[in-house]
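Collaborator request log, item 7. Partner lab (contact: R.S.) asked for a structural prediction of MaoC family dehydratase to inform their binding assays.
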Amino acid sequence: MTTTVDYADVAGLAGTDLGWTEWLEVTQERVNLFADATDDHQWIHVDPERAAEGPFGGAIAHGFLSLSLTVKFWSELFDVTGVTTRVNYGLDKVRFVSPVKVGARVRGGAVIAEVTEIPGGYQFAVDQTIEIEGAGKPAVVARGLYRFYA
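Returned to partner:
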């Protein structure tokens, strides 16, 4: 469910737990498209037969593919009305905790850690987790930095 707030009300949102998105299956097609976009065609990602004999027992998503899903999940969890521009400003403390096997389902969770006023807007520091269905450890933990301008 998306939490939607008006720009005038964002200053006090630090500490807000936004919950979790719906599950998303990581398909081989998605992995192959990411490989094409980044020119990273390492066999552990794009050769399922060879990857089955590799260290992960099957093809896995690129770490940066898993990380890129934080943007998708963030936009599903949170929106601000009354803004002119939204910017992904950066990341802090990114960790790829567990590989995501092709065919696994992942979802995103987010907690707004800090809200800081900046010239013309606000910056959000958001603690984000990409969780793998049925796994004991997450795929990715990161602090995303997002800016909203009036």
